[in-house]
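Students often ask why inverse folding is considered easier than folding. One informal answer: many sequences map to the same fold, so there is more than one right answer. In these notes we will look at a single instance of the problem. The structure comes first.
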C-alpha cells in the first residue's frame, strides 16, 4: 500500500485530505558559498511560519510538500521543528538544484555516490532528523540541461528505480523537460514518475500537452502569484484537454528567508482554497474534479 513519507512519519491516503504539492517553509536563494547561507534558529522559523500552517489547517489542508532542495537552503531540521510545533506533516525532498546553486561536494561526487546519498535519505533518514525524504527535487537550466545537472538527474533516476520516488524538476521550458524525460527513460525509469514543476512558465500549451502525453505530471504552481482569472483559464484549458488526472495545483509561496531581516514577510498558502477553488466551482468544475486535483493527484504523485 502506497505511503506519503513525511516529517511525522508515513501517511496513507485514508489519513489525508487536501495536500499542497509545491510550497516552501524555508528557502535561501543565495548560493551555498555565501556567508550565513541557510543559517537560522529553529525558534525564529517556527514563530514566523507556524501561523501560516495553522491558517491552512483551518481550511482543511492536511499536508504540504516542501520544495526547498539541496543548493537552495534545504533545512530538514527546521521543517521538522515547524511540523512538530503545528502537528502538521511536511514532505521533504532529497536531491539538488541547478547551477550555480550546486555545492562543491555535489560537483565532484560520482553518479554512484549521488545515487547512494539519495537512497540513504529516501530509505533511512535525512541527515539525523529521523524521518525519510519523500521525493527527489532537481532543476535544469532555462536554456538546456548542463552536464552537471544531467549527472544529478541520472543518479536521481537510478534512486527512483530503487524506491519508486517521484522526481520533480524546476524547469522553465517544455523542450528541456522533454530532454529530461529522455534521460530518465534512458536510465530505465518511467516518465510518469516525473513532475514538470512550473509548467505554466512554458507559454506553448502544446508543450504542456506533449509533456503530459509522455505520462508526466504537469504542475501549475502560480496560484496567488498570478491573477485568479488567468490561473483559472489555464486550469480550465487543461481540464478541457483531458489532463485533469495529471494536473497538480499549488502556490510556490511561503517562506522564511534567512537573507531577510527576521526571515522576511511570508506569503500565505491560502489563495488556492480561498480564491481559485471557488472560481473553478463558479465555472462549473464539479466537486469530484476538485477532489481529484487537490486530494487524489498530490497523493498519487508523491506517494510510493
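Output (designed amino acids):
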Amino acid at each position: 500500500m502506497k505511503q506519503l513519507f513525511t516529517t511525522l512519519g508515513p501517511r496513507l491516503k485514508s489519513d489525508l485530505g487536501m495536500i499542497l504539492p509545491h510550497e516552501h517553509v524555508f528557502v535561501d536563494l543565495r548560493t551555498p558559498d555565501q556567508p550565513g547561507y541557510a543559517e537560522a534558529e529553529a525558534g525564529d522559523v517556527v514563530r514566523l511560519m507556524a501561523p501560516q500552517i495553522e491558517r491552512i489547517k483551518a481550511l482543511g489542508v492536511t499536508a504540504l510538500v516542501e520544495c526547498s532542495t539541496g543548493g537552495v537552503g534545504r533545512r530538514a531540521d527546521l521543517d521538522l521543528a515547524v511540523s512538530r510545533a503545528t502537528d502538521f506533516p511536511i514532505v521533504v525532498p532529497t536531491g539538488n538544484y541547478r547551477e550555480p546553486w550546486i555545492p562543491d561536494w555535489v560537483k565532484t561526487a560520482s553518479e554512484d555516490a549521488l545515487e547512494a546519498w539519495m537512497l540513504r535519505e529516501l530509505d533511512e533518514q535525512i541527515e539525523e532528523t529521523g524521518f525519510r525524504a519523500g521525493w527527489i527535487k532537481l532543476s535544469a537550466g532555462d536554456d538546456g540541461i548542463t552536464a552537471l545537472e544531467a549527472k544529478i538527474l541520472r543518479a536521481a533516476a537510478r534512486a527512483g528505480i530503487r524506491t519508486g520516488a517521484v522526481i520533480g524538476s524546476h524547469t522553465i521550458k517544455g523542450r528541456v523537460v522533454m530532454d529530461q524525460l529522455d534521460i530518465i527513460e534512458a536510465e530505465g525509469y518511467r516518465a510518469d514518475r516525473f513532475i514538470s514543476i512550473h509548467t505554466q512558465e512554458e507559454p506553448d500549451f502544446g508543450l504542456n500537452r506533449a509533456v503530459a502525453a509522455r505520462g508526466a505530471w504537469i504542475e501549475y504552481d502560480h496560484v496567488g502569484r498570478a491573477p485568479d482569472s488567468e490561473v483559472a483559464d489555464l486550469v480550465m484549458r487543461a481540464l478541457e484537454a483531458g489532463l485533469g488526472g495529471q494536473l497538480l495545483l499549488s502556490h510556490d509561496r511561503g517562506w522564511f528567508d534567512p537573507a531577510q531581516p527576521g526571515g522576511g514577510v511570508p506569503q500565505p498558502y491560502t489563495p488556492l482554497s480561498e480564491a481559485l477553488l471557488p472560481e473553478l466551482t463558479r465555472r462549473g468544475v464539479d466537486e469530484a474534479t476538485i477532489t481529484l486535483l487537490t486530494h487524489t493527484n498530490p497523493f498519487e504523485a508523491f506517494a510510493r
